[in-house]
């Protein structure tokens, strides 16, 4: 079976609602995607770093217990794993405070064994971090040279707007590595001032041929060299939106693999070809919004696989 590689930050999320903690779970955008894919039975390798402290050991046990390989996780001794406090507002959207303790040397791991038509998912602020940039670029070049499908989710929030003048070029460089860019309306408004999917695509279509643009209840919009289309979504009242985009990404990956879509197919897909892929993304994202977990439950994974 084709393999999935995800690279991103590992945190331990403590989630607050109305000033009180309501949940504590391992988190981080790519970890969330990885756990959902692991629960769906896919061979997923998580590339990350965390400490050998009690929090790190708990995260390690959680990942391996959910079929996520930690072969490419750097476990640093003598430093603490990252804690994230997530505060939900009245719309159950989160704002964060992070408590980090990294060593000077980061991500000391071997290059992953990426093969043709494997999938490499990267993004969020971790993909802009200069301390691990060299490692990331090596992996991206490897993925491109071996003809894997590279998916980039910028996941760029307003809290980093003051850094945008420095980071925008890095974001554009990341987009240049991607075969698919998947982002939200908020991401592209923050980065490019683009108020809709068409304007967002225009800003980088010379660097990447495919955009999947999510806009909450407004729908999912797709732009490629051949098509421009929007897919409706069901409205819901979320309990937490923390893992929504991450699980949408997991659904896209699930859809690509389950429908046997390979790198050479991407520029030839029709609106009908994309429909089950987008549906998988919206189904997983919707499910995760209905709990305080950052990933689908094992029970839902079993039901989803029988649909």
Enter the CATH topology name: UDP-N-acetylmuramoyl-L-alanine:D-glutamate ligase
Give helix and strand order, one letter per element, not per position. Answer: EEEHEHEEEEEHEHEHHEEEHHH
- How many discrete domains? 1
* pLDDT averaged residue by residue: 96
Tally of individual helices: 9
- What is the C-alpha radius of gyration, as a whole number of Å? 18 Å
> What is the CATH architecture term?
3-Layer(aba) Sandwich
Give the class from helix and strand content and strand pairing: alpha/beta
Major sheet characteristics: 10 strands, mixed
Question: Quick one: CATH superfamily?
Answer: Ribokinase
Explained architecture:
There is one protein chain. The chain is α/β, with parallel strands linked by helices. The protein has one domain: UDP-N-acetylmuramoyl-L-alanine:D-glutamate ligase. Helices cover 35% and strands 23% of the residues. It is built from 9 helices and 14 strands. It has helices spanning 29-39, 54-65, 133-145, 164-177, 185-192, 197-204, 244-258, 271-288, 298-304; strands at 4-7, 11-17, 20-27, 44-51, 68-69, 73-76, 83-88, 94-99, 119-123, 149-153, 180-184, 211-214, 220-223, 228-231. Strands 1, 4, 5, 6, 9, 10, 11, 12, 13 and 14 form a 10-stranded mixed sheet that branches. A 4-stranded mixed sheet has the order 3-2-7-8. The mean pLDDT is 96.
